[in-house]
Amino acid sequence: MRNRPERAGEGDTDPEVVIRPANRGDWIGVMSVLDGALLDVDAEGVRERIAADTVLVAHASGSERVRGALVLAEPRTDDRGSETETEIEVDAIAVRRRYRDRGIGSALIDRARRETDRVLVTEFDARVRPFYAALGFLVAPIGDDRFRGRDAAGSDRE
Fold first, then answer.
1. CA-based nearest residue to 132, from 156, 157, 154, 116
2. What is the pLDDT, as a whole number, of residue 9?
3. Is 32 helix (H, G, I), strand (E, B) or coil?
4. Residue 136, phi-psi category: left (phi > 0), alpha (psi -120 to 50), beta (remainder)
5. What CATH architecture is 6-122?
6. DSSP string, 109-135
7. Which of 35, 54, 86, 135 is deepest in the core (most CB within 10 A)?
8. pTM for this predicted structure
9. Which residues have a Cβ under 8 Å from the Cβ of 130 and sit 6 or more positions away?
10. pLDDT digits (tens, 9 = 90+) for 110-141
11. What residues form DSSP beta bridges with 148?
12. Between residues 28 and 62, the one the model is more confident about
């Protein structure tokens, strides 16, 4: 991911939000946001994803307090270390409850779209289906109130 911060895009309801790649110092804030959303994530795995530069954070301009975070999975590779797939999984995305409905989750997805040449895919439960559908993900049921989303906006990258 690029190392420069970026303000949330035009049309967002909170233009003071900055989206940037996470650094080691963000780990506790990222885990706090993910834990607060009751997401089942491996803390050491998140630390590894931060080191691999595949975690984004959202914070207010002038503050480093993490308001939202997005974790991308490790790209799959073959036995020679070459990346093998055209898709990349969004392992987790969350926004602190008090900052929801301000465009932060959308801004995190938009930045992830720009940072990768892969199509974003994710699995989620029914309560967040409207979020992904509104962002243009093609949503299909996979059983027991679970869904899989594939970013239609990224399909032209294949």
1. 154
2. 45
3. helix
4. left
5. 3-Layer(aba) Sandwich (3.40)
6. HHHHHHH-SSEEEEEEEGGGHHHHHHT
7. 54
8. 0.85
9. none
10. 999 999 989 999 999 999 999 999 999 999 99
11. 123, 140
12. 28
